[in-house]
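Honest question from a wet-lab person: if I give you the sequences of every part of a complex, can you actually get the arrangement of the whole thing, not just the pieces? Trying it with mine:
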Amino acid sequence: MRTADLVTASILILLGGVVIFDAVRLGIGWGTDGPKSGFFPFWLAVIMVVACGIIILQALRRSSREVFVTREQLGPVLQVFWPAAAMVLLTRFVGLYVASALYIGFYMRWVGRHSWFAVVTLSVAIPVITFFTFELWFLVPMPKGPLEAWLGY
Amino acid sequence: MVLGADAEGTARSLVGVLMGLENIFLGFQQALAHQNLFYAAVGITLGTIIGVLPGLGGANGVAILLPLTLRMPPTSAIILLTSLYWGALFGGAITSVLFNIPGEPWSVATTFDGYPLARQGQSGQALTGAFTSSFIGAFFSTVLITLFAPLLADVALRFGPPEIFSIQLLTFSAFVGLGGGSALKSLVSVMIGFILATVGLDIVTGQLRMTFGVTELMQGFDFIIAVIGLFGIGEIMLSVEEGLSFKGVATKMNLHVVLDTWKILPRYWRTFVRSCFIGFWMGFKPGGATPASFMSYSFAKRFSKNPNQFGKGDLEGVVAPETAAHAAGVAAILPMITLGIPGSPTAAVMLGGLIIWGLQPGPLLFKEKPDFVWGLIASMYTGNILGVLMVLAFVPFFAAILRIPFAILTPLIVVLCAIGSYAVHNAMIDVWYMLIFGVIGYVFKKLDYPIAPLVLALVLGDMAENALRQSLIMSQGSLAILFTRPISGVITSVAILFFIMPIITPWWRRIRGNPVITPAPRET
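Yes, you can. This is the full assembly:
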């Protein structure tokens, strides 16, 4: 927990530094018509960097044996994350509905070990229902791929 | 002459009251239109489902649904979204009582006595008590909003940039000083939100900020995406990490149980009154619902004749936190419609909705769109009446949702989040942002960086910056203007007091010799 705290605060200080750098480029003082563009971000970043600095000092002073995340905990989290990222990537090529069908089916089979019947039924039914709800009823277009084009949408 | 002025004053106030009556009457005409009642029912159903499901709370439920409301009339749209919010508040009570899982942070206190009651086979009584208390708390706050919102809006109309900025300071100081948890981390969250809000085009000077030549960053970060990622995806990751297993208690809910419980409830009238006031008072400040529920619970315990019964299944222990949490949840709407400053992340998303529908949130709404404002206020009455009846009738159905296997719920929620993110701007990059915000939300939650102030700062960033800029232009660069004007002076002073409270409180306790109290769990 302590390490994670230190790493997060350090990353935030780094980002704060980037913001300060850009704010100085834009000008942090008084322009012709009021404060320049960099004024507000500059002070925000300064406050953030100072606060993160104190967080680091506090974290250094205490000892902690608590682990940020155990291997047993990280497993299921990554099981959610990677397939979700893969789905977003796939959406570009096959459209959101097909990608979400593959994603739901994959997750149900891989993590939930549901029967193939349940996997196929739900991974087809859920995207079809969302298609009718969003695309046809509420007229909110989603990214579509070759399958939808073939069906005429 | 004196008598004449008096009579004139009385006449004017009478006219004021009559106009108020007329306004709320017009509002009810809106709220009771068939179409809007239908939207309220849909909103409550969806909201309760969302409140029951892990990983989907009021804020991201509203965020996912927001793109769907684009083509609706604004009044119907806000009724749909607020009803969703009421539903989510009700839904949190169901999981707390039946599954010992608080769906929302403000339902944590409800589990203390709700779950023991359910274990003793009194789930029907506990749920009826919870819903009825929620309803009473919400109703109380709605009445106060009806009475005070127009007055507050009138006052707010006279606010200049220094006053607006000082209210912003107060909003965020409340998170830092009263939010619980690490005050420094709350401060950092606020700053991150504000910094993210500055990314992109600066509309005042026309310069690009923090984009570093990346075209995608020119648009800036949309807070709706941030809400869906931080609350939706982040929450899902946390839930799977904890290895969710739902061991629920079956419900025994029928008209008989409901009526029997209603016979007992008037006994707790003192608790109701006290909790209503605590809830409203805490609730119109940001982040108030959770502390309100805890405070109300501990007050009820202190004033109870048999405090030992608390925690073992006392109906009063359900009544107190639920009344306060709902009074607070509804009170969060007050600053949103009168000042344009939301009191909770959910209210923040609704505020975003107002902007998308082409309305300017803030005090002018009362003058320019009275049908919208009063329709909204009236719908708070109808929505809560409809809500309490619906949840009482369909509890078994809502509880059954938690029995859906987790491997189906998880991908379904992720897909819904992706759809909601994409629909905001029809851009795939937003879906990637959603995933990144999801990881940030997961890490931040684990490290106790609060998410709600980040979201609120992201929403209010432009407004805060403009208010500060204009204030400084008025004073030619001196921050003293925040103190020299009477209203902003008082508000700024209170804000500064809140900011330094985390520093002085431990010191004060040490002097008095009181033990250091562990901070209350914070609202995220």
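Two things worth pointing out. The longest strand of chain A covers residues 30-31. Residues 2-26 of chain A form the longest helix (25 residues).
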